[in-house]
Design goal:
This protein is of the alpha/beta class and 123 residues long. The chain contains four helices and five strands; from the N terminus they run ββαβαβαβα. The relative contact order is 0.25.
């Protein structure tokens, strides 16, 4: 059930599973861990954009879309969501619990990385 922490909407594993499965056109799910963590196990279809790259990618984000962020435990992704909210992006969500709570098949499918603002805009 969605709830908020520090003004950021939180989703749990079941809600995230539905988002990844249904892929709403206005929602982008992004993994903000480090490349080594992502390579060790990631959610199929969820691209990587390491947390430290988010500020330089700000021009690729759209205020018309919702962004759901994932990390290992939910802390880094919460910080990314808070950063974007401070920059005027209201539709930001955190996957509370992170990959530690994900039990639905890790490391299936190809790796996808967001490397430029243009890559992000295509999402």
């Amino acid at each position: 059930m969605p709830h908020e922490i520090d003004g950021i909407k939180q989703v749990d594993a079941e809600e995230l599973k539905e988002l990844v499965k249904n892929k709403p056109a206005d929602t982008v799910v992004i993994d903000v861990r480090e490349p080594e963590e992502y390579e060790a196990g990631h959610i199929p279809g969820v691209p990587l954009l390491p947390m430290n790259s988010v500020p330089e990618m700000i021009d690729g984000f759209s205020k018309e879309k919702e962004y759901v962020f994932i990390c290992r435990s939910g802390n880094r992704s919460q910080n990314v969501a808070m950063f974007l909210k401070d920059k005027g992006f209201d539709r930001v969500t955190n996957y509370d619990g992170g990959m530690l709570d994900w039990e639905y098949g890790k490391n299936e499918g190809p790796e996808e990385r967001i490397e430029t603002p243009e890559d992000l805009k295509k999402r």
